Amino acid sequence: MTDLSHIRNFSIIAHIDHGKSTIADRFIQVCGGLAAREMEAQVLDSMDIERERGITIKAQSVSLDYKARDGETYQLNFIDTPGHVDFSYEVSRSLSACEGALLVVDAAQGVEAQSVANCYTAIEQGLEVIPVLNKIDLPQAEPDRVAQEIEDVIGVEASDAVQCSAKSGQGIEDVLEDLVRLVPPPEGDVDAPLQALIIDSWFDNYMGVVSLVRVKQGTLKVKDKVITKSLGRSQVVDSVGVFTPKRKVTGMLRAGEVGFVVAGIKDIHGAPVGDTITHASTPDVDAVPGFQKVKPQVYAGLFPVNSEDYEAFRDALSKLTLNDASLFYEPESSDALGFGFRCGFLGMLHMEIIQERLEREYDLDLITTAPTVIYEVMMNDGAVVSVDNPSKLPDPGSIQEMREPIVEANILVPQDHLGSVITLCIQKRGVQKSMQYLGSQVAVTYELPMNEVVMDFFDRLKSVSRGFASLDYSFVRFQEAKLVRLDVLINGDRVDALALIVHRDNAPFKGRALTEKMKELIPRQMFDVAIQAAIGGQVIARTTVKALRKNVTAKCYGGDISRKKKLLQKQKAGKKRMKQVGNVEIPQAAFLAVLKMDEK
Amino acid sequence: MTSSQPLSGLELPPLSLYVHIPWCVRKCPYCDFNSHKAEEKIPEQAYVDALIADLKEEQQFAQGRRLQSIFMGGGTPSLFSPSAIDQILRSAEELIGFNPNIEITMEANPGTFEQKKFRGFHDAGVNRLSIGIQSFNEQQLQRLGRIHGRKEALGAIHMAREAGFTNINLDLMHGLPEQSPEDAERDLQQAISLEPEHISWYQLTIEPNTEYYSRPPTLPVEDELADIQQLGEELLANAGYEQYEISAYARKGSINLQSRHNLNYWRFGDYLGIGAGAHGKITDIQTQQLLRRRKTRLPNHYLDTKKAFCSETSVLTAEDLPLEFTMNVLRLSEGAELESFKKRCGLPLQHLEPQLSQLKEKGLLANDLQRLKTTPKGQRFLNMVLAEFM
After folding, report:
1. Most buried residue among A479, B25, B39, B183 by CB atoms closer than 10 A?
2. What is the pLDDT of residues A546-564, one digit of tens each?
């Protein structure tokens, strides 16, 4: 059944909550990929964090056998994609393995900016985009309006779009029929030299490195001797197969197919995502044009609370980077926090998820410093340096010019909420580039400092628009800006891990807001704790956390011991995620105070 | 997993006995002790019989020692009749034996019903009475759910004196709901004016499993609590009461009026515990082990002859001991001799390191080569000191 004409490789583009995972679950059910008892809601979101947060972080694939109405059986290879703005790079990776994409839109909510951006990526990569209207069973569903909106906003014909409800199962087979009918079969020659694109790689404790690949040309079999183009190291293939979504060994993958390869690679950097696998005998075959390695947008220092955990932390990071090509890290040492790593993330959600995975899956207790974007600094001698760490900003006297990254933000918002979205953009130093009315929605484009966008802009945007506005953004350029380093001093000592780069005009306000917020977040200690914000040598704000006067349990007799012990244990647990800086215990929350300054 | 370091060099410390009487007329909203609202008739005789049977099983743990103190707590032990108390004490003397100068304390409510029995308790052998006054403020007493009023509170100590008691403790709380520093001062002044030998002056804490925990009252803010603490300590010192433990004050004089029973807890001594939910701590000299024993909690189960008294015996490990020891001895102003850690815990002093040196450096423990004790600052932040030994 590996006749190429009966293979369909596709992805699903959908905004969070628009029902992608549920549709995927239905496909698996219709095609009998899992027995009913094995169905667990959102089977593809295999990480706990994914299920809990209701989002997809990692790309995954499922091969399903679908018996179509024409009587033929087709192999449908679904490559799942994440939906959050932070993870758009994963989308382009997944799309590069497909010939078609379903654009799933919530028939009650309409098109969101993220889907627009992903659709354009799909169209650019030559994919057939098939719109699907989901949640048709909701009373507030407006399929006609939303179909019109798809045409207006994205420019994809949608009048014939299938209307379905993944929840009830209505229309699901029609979607599958559309897939078979509209997505072109893959092209490729099973006898040509092997070219297989690594879509994703991850570390499995039992098998070593497992890679998800799309075979573009040729055939990949067990026992083949293969190399990756960029590394050139030869390995023997141990196992080849597909996910149904259970792992099923087939022994062979042919041009047009998507599946997994295990090649005894122990070193987790041995199978880089985006690389091309070929046979050791054909090392000169062209690399498949992969996808650009994405650059992290947000940097933060991560430090183990206990310095003994440093080695374990490094191992955990190196394991995570195999699954997550976008995670960057390099050793960093801080006067205040000791040895840790400066890590680069795609956005704040990515950062939260990485920290959560490190703590949960690797049992590490970490302190994260305030995230920052990358700045460009032109020195007096004309040299340009990148700064991803406020404490490493060169001496102001040696700086000719500082530049901050600017993004173009495309926002889709219902007309009713346009005003508050514009107000928010202006507050964040945005410059409007265009505005276009598309049916009931408005597409506005702003140029904004990336620093303002990556921190809490997305959350703020959601809250000022009652959840209706959506956002997609991309870096456009570095631009000169009046920036200064805001230092934080605790009891007179500058704490490098608390420094921030801020716009000079905002500095006095930020300094005050930051010290106030930190005062709330640092618990009272045995002595007064002075918190100062300073620029250069000049203190611009100051607060004090007054000393605790006592901390002692009043009554304690023989029989009480076990209860008092519990009380002490509770106090001790509260100390987790506190870092001692000098004499002062600073909780994790205080390091991230800058993110919470707008909260009251 | 490696097993814990075995203990060695344990010596037998003084032995005390704790007797728990689990009934109260009603349950107070701050109380998390094992107390139960009394039904119409307390099964007094059955309970006394059970206590004696329980004590027979504990007898083996005396290992030749006699009792240096007995404490009858609750609950409200003064709900029991003097003859019941008499039976308990006589059995204790027969089964374990008394040291010549044994201290026998009983907790009593200041209610009129109890006051009538004070003489009987004294005649039964009780030589120290601990009266649960808590406050002299009518409104506070009501809020605390106490069944006595200001008048009973004031009368109780006179009744006790008339009954022959020459060693009386008053239990007094501070940091009560909506209490101002002035209110607290007034309460304490009142207690001092009654000239008890001993005052337990302790801050109200909200414990889990209490009515206050589920419906928290408005307590004074942290700074007010610290003010109250400070003014109270000065007041007591000026009146001749010496603080020898976090919440315990004894009148200075020719005889030592500190609570010998509680001192034994705080010095990490041994105690047998009998009665529903009672705890005991025992040094087993033969096996070189430290044991904690807990008795079955519910009065009905305790009285059920088919059920065992003891619900749990656990062995303290070398890992538990630094905390268990410091949790007790550091409550005392005098602390403890460093050497006593070896005798009481069966471990070398290195087991207290590196915390000991670190805490000395931080000024929380006194720089004393002989004794383990807090500095005044360490005493105020005792919880932080103890957390280091976890």
Report:
1. B183
2. 998 888 887 767 666 777 7
Tokens representing residue B237 in the block: 């010192």
Q: The tokens 């519910």 sit on which residue?
A: B298
Q: If you ran DSSP here, which 8-state letter would residue A41 be given?
A: S
- Do the Cβ atoms of B327 and A559 come within 8 Å? no
B320-390 has the same fold as B15-264: no
Residue type, A458: F
- Torsion angle, alpha carbons of B177, B178, B181, B186, to 10: -80
Determine whether the interchain pair B265/A564 forms a contact, defined as Cβ–Cβ distance below 8 Å.
no
pLDDT at B97: 97
Q: Determine, for residues B387 and A526 on separate chains, whether the beta-carbon distance falls below 8 Å.
A: no
- Partners of B73 in the beta sheet? B20
A360 sits in which H/E element: helix A348-361
Residue numbers in A near B226 (CB within 8 A) = 549-550
Reported as half-sphere exposure (CB side, CA atoms, 13 A), residue B197 has a value of: 19
- Contact status, residue B216 vs residue B167, Cβ threshold 8 Å: no
Best CA proximity match to A165, nearest among A189, A141, A129 = A141
* Closest CA–CA distance from residue B203 to any residue of chain A (Å): 6
B15-264 to CATH, choices 3.10.150.10, 3.30.450.150, 3.20.20.70, 3.60.150.10:
3.20.20.70
Which among A554, A564, A565 has the least Cβ separation from residue B203? A554
Look at residues A484, A513, A514, A497 and name the one whose alpha carbon lies nearest to residue A369.
A497
Determine the residue of chain A that is closest to B324 in CA distance.
Answer: A561
Q: State residue A439's pLDDT score.
A: 76
**A413: its two tokens:** 């918002």
Highest CATH level, class, for B320-390: mainly alpha
CB-based contacts of A239, cutoff 8 Å, min separation 6: A207, A222, A249, A260, A261, A262
Percentage of residues of chain B with pLDDT beyond 70 = 99
Residue whose C-alpha is closest to residue B54's, from B271, B270, B274: B274
- Which stretches of chain B score pLDDT less than 70? 1-3
pLDDT in tens, A5-61: 899 999 888 876 677 778 888 888 888 765 555 555 555 555 555 555 544 444 467
A594 SS3 class: helix
Q: Where are the domains of chain B?
A: 15-264, 320-390
Which residues of B are less than 8 Å from A557 in CB distance? 262, 265
Find residue A279's DSSP bridge partners.
Answer: A226
**A573 in contact with B, Cβ within 8 Å:** no
Q: B34-53, pLDDT tens digit by residue? A: 888 877 788 999 999 999 99
* Helix spans in chain B (H): 44-58, 82-95, 112-115, 118-124, 138-143, 150-162, 181-193, 211-214, 222-238, 260-266, 299-303, 321-329, 338-345, 355-361, 376-380, 382-387
Question: What's residue A119's pLDDT?
Answer: 86
Q: Write down the pLDDT at residue B22.
A: 93
Name the residue among A200, A205, A261, A185 with its Cα closest to residue A60.
Answer: A200
Query: What is the C-alpha radius of gyration for chain B, rounded to an integer number of angstroms?
Result: 21
Strands B67-74 and B98-108: parallel
Show which of residues 522-541 on chain A sit within 8 Å of chain B, judged by CB atoms: 524, 526
pLDDT of residue A55: 47
DSSP 8-state secondary structure symbol assigned to residue B332: B
Identity at B194, one-letter amino acid code: L
Residue A564 tokens read as 């008092």
**With a threshold of 0.95, does the pTM exceed it?**
no
CA–CA distance, A277 with A225 (Å, rounded to integer): 10
List of chain A residues with pLDDT < 70 = 1-2, 16-17, 33-60, 81-90, 267-268, 290-294, 323, 325, 556, 558-560, 574-576, 598-600
Q: Do residues A257 and A77 make contact, with C-beta atoms less than 8 angstroms apart?
A: yes
Asked if A1 reaches chain B (Cβ–Cβ under 8 Å), the answer is no
Q: Which of B15, B228, B246, B262 to mutate to test the interface with A (most CBs of A within 10 A)?
A: B246
